[in-house]
Amino acid sequence: MALVVVGGVAAGLSAAARARRMDPSLEIVVLEQGPTVSYGACGLPYFVEGRVREARQLIVHTPEYFRRERNIDVRTGAHVISIQHPRREVTLATGERVRYDRLIVATGARCDTSRMEGARRPNVFTLHTLEDAERMRGFLRDKKPRRAVVIGAGYIGLEAADALRRNGLRVTVIERSRNVLRREDPALTAAVRRQLEQHGVELVCDVEVRAIAADRVADVACDMVVAAGGFKPNVELAAEAGVEVGRSGAIRTDDRMETSLRGVFAAGDCAETMHTVTGRPVWIPLGTTANKTGRVAGANAAGGRKRFNGVAGTTIVGLFGMGFATTGLSIAQARAEGFSPVAARIEAGVRPRYYGGGKTTVELVADRATGRLLGGSAIGEDGAAGRINVIATALEARMRVDQFEQLDLAYSPPFATVWDPLLIAAQQLMKEL
Amino acid sequence: MALVVVGGVAAGLSAAARARRMDPSLEIVVLEQGPTVSYGACGLPYFVEGRVREARQLIVHTPEYFRRERNIDVRTGAHVISIQHPRREVTLATGERVRYDRLIVATGARCDTSRMEGARRPNVFTLHTLEDAERMRGFLRDKKPRRAVVIGAGYIGLEAADALRRNGLRVTVIERSRNVLRREDPALTAAVRRQLEQHGVELVCDVEVRAIAADRVADVACDMVVAAGGFKPNVELAAEAGVEVGRSGAIRTDDRMETSLRGVFAAGDCAETMHTVTGRPVWIPLGTTANKTGRVAGANAAGGRKRFNGVAGTTIVGLFGMGFATTGLSIAQARAEGFSPVAARIEAGVRPRYYGGGKTTVELVADRATGRLLGGSAIGEDGAAGRINVIATALEARMRVDQFEQLDLAYSPPFATVWDPLLIAAQQLMKEL
User: Fold this and answer.
1) Which of B362, B418, B433 to mutate to test the interface with A (most CBs of A within 10 A)?
2) Rg (CA), chain A
3) Which of A1, A215, B224, B274 has its CA 20 to 30 A from that of B303?
4) Can you name the residues that pair with A317 across neighbouring β-strands?
């Protein structure tokens, strides 16, 4: 039995490693088109910032490691140009063919700049691969740019803005939609805007960038540009082979991460998953999901029967020391999904006043008809990750607000208030139900 | 309609405030035997430490506030000595009688030193009321003691030890049982012991203190003693009136916090609650539970129909900057409750290595027969509260490990690892099931 994995970053290597654990005799080949595998893509902004000194610190394992320790044949510079599923073969750009019994497509996503004029200028960057980040870092060092425009206020765009600002640049973020972080959530957008502006980063929403001039983007003067918008799943390779693509634009999968072609699995940023709250297929490309879906795809490709439970879309972004975390649906998203949502938003101290400590903002969204929790957000210097994770756990459990309101959460003055802000928000929300 | 509440700290005042919201016309009297109401009892160790400068910072509201803003008659120095339920009356030590239609017993708990010889010496302290803490602080200032013994390694004892050590004293904690923090959990005890010893606090387990000599306790020389063991619920007043006491020794309640006498409710440290995991009555006195059960008792005493969902027993204690958090059952406790438990304990980084950050220890306990999560612990300088809260939420939802393993938890390098330590522990535990 031979397993071929296309893509050697988070999903691909999680899949390969899991398949190996399931079946020590499986022949496993990972084909990665880039020069590097197994790197922490989410760490790239921190390398640009300078906090991470060397790009190689982001590399988790080398191809040699996989060969030696896991008996997995990881090939870099291996660009797959087509899949011939009837013959169970993939073809590389070199013409070489690799046979498979099971195939995992983990081709990731890209920032699509193909329709943006000027995107190939030497001062225009994406922040997707280790090489992208090294090129950007080299530019910062050699050209000492003073003004940057970041196109796209998703998490990569905002983290890039933070990293560039910490390098002393003036930064403007230009976002196509009205809201940041791919979430229709005006309150969240307002909070992010406030934090950015307090740290000297300008945020411009509702402006679509169609062209990048030599010294400006959409009337903003700059000497470097980060293109971090217009993400698209890399589905072309699979689609040309007959794999079905879902309405989200990503590869359709079942709850075992198998595609419409039997024996072909998809995982990571190129694949759809099921949304925990709506039960519908979604495309929410995140590192956590890439690792989890890779693991499930790997287990099933090796003959296991592992189900993937879906995603709540939990994210957190750190901007100048403040955490902005969301999960599930915002009130606007919930409405668009056919719920009749109500929300409560509170600000509260994270510790008793006498102990000292900052504040946090918590929002909870629930369905008026059923009382079921649908989503929420947590913003704060302290504890935003822990709080959003509690909400995400409640979403997975399909918890109602009246149950959430009484959660037995930890309290001690150095860590929390006796009524955690989550519970205060839930009490508030109970009044709306 | 008249509501009388016996006890004016966490549970009593939560109950009174909630009852007032439910029914603006209710006559509400709160009878507190001490001189102060509505103080943050959990903050007392931080006042002893010196972090909280003034005792009055711990006071949330004054009796005047309750009278003026809430129309609640809060009387201090009002010592109730008996309840005559057939006549719906309580009698104060002064002989005064107060009539009620509904009664809420929120008499709290005490450190029972009645059978400990020498407990009334002037250098022996409890840490239960604001006055206790002020007396201890005065002693530290005036007598400049150099060696302290703390009797009892529950959370108050350990927090007192931390506070005294930070005041420069040599501190020995003597605990009657084999384990600390009222939890049969040798791994937790070992971790606490390590942290205490690294900060110069000695921990002696398995030693029962029967007498306090003038200058020593159980062979440990000292010039001051904190009695923080042998906690008992204050049930005598209610029991003498015919209220049923449960096997735990605390007042038996139903899920509306009503006692065996109709119209008499109990809340806070004197009352039993239902354990989320076992479904059995337990006595787990905690500030969080006091506030919650007070709120439920208050709502129901005012004619509402509010259910209390029970407790997982979630706690966190900070010792010299490290958080020790637990919830649900330890493996030994689970075994004693009739489960066939398995556990996994892992240590993992709280952030990616390239970003930097400490480690955390996470333990998860599950039932082999059903795969259901039964409890866990989280120890670390960072994120222990957030992680234990996720476990507590999963316990409330009766989640299985295979579901927990795929939770969509937040990830971004400044906040977490792509596989949160909770998920790594769950993966480990899946192998045991």
Assistant:
1) B418
2) 22
3) B274
4) A324
Give contacts of A384 with chain B, Cβ < 8 Å: 410, 415
Residue ranges of B 43-72 with Cβ closer than 8 A to chain A: 43, 46, 51-52, 57-58
Question: What residues have CB less than 8 Å from A252, skipping those under 6 apart?
Answer: A243, A244, A245, A246, A259, A260, A272, A281
Residue in B closest to A314 by C-alpha: B410
What residues of B act catalytically?
Answer: 42
Cβ neighbours, 10 Å, residue A201? 24
Q: How much is the pTM?
A: 0.97
Q: For residue B70, what is the DSSP state?
A: H
| DSSP 8-state code for residue B99 | E
H or E segment to which residue A226 belongs: strand A224-227
Task: Say how far apart CA A7 and CA A26 lie, in whole Å.
Answer: 18
Q: What are phi and psi of A284, to 5 degrees?
A: -125, 90
Q: Quick one: angle between helices A10-22 and A287-301, nearest 10?
A: 30
Cβ pair A397:B392 closer than 8 A: no
Q: What is the pLDDT of residues A320-376, one digit of tens each?
A: 999 999 999 999 999 999 999 999 999 999 999 999 989 999 999 999 999 999 999
Nearest-CA neighbor of A284 among A325, A327, A343?
A: A327
For every residue of B256-273, DSSP letters joined together read: TSB-SSTTEEE-GGGB-E
H or E element at residue B47:
helix B44-49
Handedness of CA B200, B201, B205, B209 (dihedral sign): positive
Between positions 170 and 199 of A, the ones with CB within 8 A of B are: none
Write the pLDDT tens digit of every residue in B71-125: 999 999 999 999 999 999 999 999 999 999 999 999 999 999 888 999 999 999 9
Task: Please tell me the predicted confidence (pLDDT) of residue B431.
Answer: 95
Give me the pLDDT at residue B38, please.
87
| CA-based nearest distance A27→chain B, Å | 24
ipTM: 0.97
In angstroms, what separates the C-alpha of B397 from chain A's closest C-alpha? 6
- Backbone CA torsion sign across B372, B374, B380, B386: positive
Helix intervals (H) in B213-345: 236-240, 287-301, 331-336
Rounded CA gap, A271 and B311, in Å?
40
Sign for the pseudo-dihedral over CA of A253, A257, A259, A260? negative
Cβ atoms of residues A360 and A380 within 8 Å: yes
Q: How far is A313 from chain B (nearest CA, A)?
A: 7
Q: Do A412 and B327 touch (CB under 8 A)?
A: no
Q: With a CB-CB cutoff of 8 Å, which residues 220-279 of chain A face chain B?
A: 276
What is the count of residue pairs from A and B with beta carbons less than 8 Å apart?
Answer: 208
| B95 CB-contact burial (10 Å; exposed 0-12 / middle 13-18 / buried 19+) | exposed
Helices marked H in B100-234? 130-143, 155-166, 186-198
- With a CB cutoff of 8 Å and minimum separation 6, the contacts of B427 are B405, B419
**Tokens describing residue B127:** 């840490």
Which of A418, A422, A428 is best to mutate for the B interface (most B CBs within 10 A)? A418
DSSP single-letter state for residue A252 = P
CB contact under 8 A, B387 and A390: no
Q: How many CA atoms lie within 13 A of B200 on its CB side?
A: 12
Q: SS3 of A246, please?
A: coil
Contact A418/B42, CB-based, under 8 Å? yes
Length of chain B: 433
Neighboring chain A residues of B22 at a CB cutoff of 8 Å: none
For A:359-388, CB contacts with B below 8 A are 383-388
Helix residue ranges, H only, B83-231:
130-143, 155-166, 186-198
